[in-house]
UniProtKB/TrEMBL annotation:
BP GO annotations: carbohydrate metabolic process
Designated name of the protein: Uncharacterized protein
Source species: Methanofollis formosanus
Gene3D superfamilies per UniProt: Glycoside hydrolase/deacetylase
Length: 472
């Protein structure tokens, strides 16, 4: 067998920037070795001898620095996945000069991924203060929801069913579609968090029976962080409060999406499996510039799963943590038709580039005065019609961790080549990886596993760690 080789050599002084770029853009590459022959070298002009290889000159455009900056600093009100666009620009350059074998960020058999999530700020009318209940009644009356206003008042007085306890409705909706979601619960009752206004507090205790019902049914439960984003001790305590009830690893989304430059490292050191805070309260889009889970700089294990679409950003009036200055700010306040247009723009990018569209619909959004549950149902229905993998954040991060562990090689032979997936897990029951090879289908004689032929690309299932590709 020929020596395993990467036809792309890279020389750069920031290992994180390079390695994280190639976790998102999963192709064969290696650190530049002057004794190796390459088709392409990615470096700054003058730093290496290219020996006939094509040079991607980082002095002209530093893809690594730009991608790393966006992932870790974020972008305000960004409505296109600029990291994916940068990667695709680099992809097109590389394809002109080498055979580019790639593991895209979507499993075999699916067009993209949707992660379903619910933040549990409120669990009932009865737990809320009269000022909060009164405002909800006022909103109902403004919208002509007289019956809903009466139900809310009655529930506050202990009469009738509680319309804000929507867990069973959400579970039935998702059960009907055969999908599961992630629920983020506040870890402590009556706590607003250090320096936060009192309105940020939740007024419910963690309910072991409810959490057991959810986890026994296949739903995931995580931490809706209060102080875990800034205080290392709180990060550990809040994780423990929830993980003691679930008996499993947990991820987090911080309440109100509060965050700073040190948050990821604190969450990582506390032991959270992932974070899904990096997104907008007052907009829909790509704060991280990407739809892919990624590892922030300085983290050993934590993945960030960017938040892309949330109900409050689409339909809400005001937010307590705006994307502009962290203060009070206006949300989009869209009609359902306008909101679907915005969501369609996001989903079109997901179909083009792959990755994860993370949705957030709050637990109480099913009920009046919001009643945003039907829009959520339509989004899930459309995703399933588009052959999308719809899953919890836990399942999504597990799949991406599997993909991250793989090193991709291929061995060139006289009649084709062999693709090797080093580090692939054996016996995994998760959705299979797939591999893209930019060849016309007519050039393929046979492949030793399941595959699909196209005009410009061949798709190969990654269910085996070694695949032989025979050319005509």
């Amino acid at each position: 067998m020929a020596e395993q080789r990467a036809l792309i050599g890279v020389k750069y002084d920031d290992p994180y920037a390079v390695e994280e770029t190639f976790q998102l853009f999963k192709i064969p590459w290696e650190w530049y070795d002057p004794s190796h022959a390459y088709d392409v070298v990615i470096a700054r002009r003058g730093e290496v001898e290219t020996a006939g290889a094509f040079l991607v000159d980082l002095l002209e455009k530093d893809y690594f620095a730009e991608i790393a900056r966006i992932l870790n600093e974020g972008l305000p009100h960004c409505h296109e996945p600029v990291v994916e666009i940068l990667i695709d620009e680099l992809r097109q350059v590389l394809k002109e000069h080498t055979l580019l074998v790639e593991i895209p960020p979507v499993p075999w058999g699916y067009s993209y991924i949707v992660a379903l999530t619910h933040d549990v700020d409120i669990t009932s009318v009865r737990e809320r203060r009269w000022v909060s209940v009164g405002y909800a009644v006022y909103q109902c009356l403004r919208k002509g929801m007289v019956k809903d206003a009466t139900c809310i008042l009655g529930a506050k007085c202990g009469i009738g069913e509680d319309p804000w306890r929507c867990f069973e409705e959400w579970m039935r909706l998702e059960e009907d579609f055969g999908v599961r979601s992630t629920w983020f619960f506040l870890p402590e009752k009556g706590m607003a968090g250090e320096g936060a206004p009192a309105i940020r507090a939740g007024y419910y205790d963690l309910d072991p029976a409810l959490i057991k019902t959810l986890t026994d049914g296949g739903w995931e439960v995580g931490v809706h962080g209060l102080d875990n984003w800034w205080d290392a001790g709180a990060a550990q305590d809040e994780l423990r409060r929830v993980s003691d009830l679930t008996g499993a690893e947990v991820g987090t989304r911080v309440h109100w999406l509060l965050f700073d430059a040190g948050s990821w490292k604190k969450l990582d050191e506390a032991g959270y499996a992932y974070d899904s805070t990096f997104g907008y309260n007052d907009d829909v889009g790509f704060r991280a510039g990407t739809m892919q889970p990624y590892r922030p700089r300085g983290c050993e294990r934590l993945l960030e799963v960017p938040l892309i679409i949330q109900d409050g950003g689409l339909f809400g009036g005001k937010t307590w943590n705006s994307s502009d200055d962290g203060g009070r700010g206006a949300c989009l306040r869209l009609s359902e038709e306008e909101a679907m247009e915005r969501c369609d723009e996001v989903l079109a990018y997901a179909k083009q580039y792959g990755g994860v569209v993370t949705l957030l619909w709050h637990q109480v959004s099913m009920a009046a005065p919001k009643k945003w549950g039907e829009f959520y149902r339509v989004l899930v229905e459309r995703a399933i019609a588009d052959e999308v993998w719809v899953a919890s954040v836990e399942d999504v991060t597990r799949w991406f961790e599997r993909r991250r562990k793989i090193t991709l090689y291929f061995d060139i032979r006289e009649n084709g080549f062999v693709i090797q997936l080093n580090g692939a897990e054996e016996g995994s029951d998760m959705a299979n990886l797939k591999i893209f090879v930019p060849l016309h289908g007519s050039s393929i004689q046979n492949i030793g596993t399941e595959y699909q032929l196209g005009n410009t690309i061949v798709k190969i299932t990654g269910e085996n760690d070694k695949m032989s590709v025979y050319l005509q």
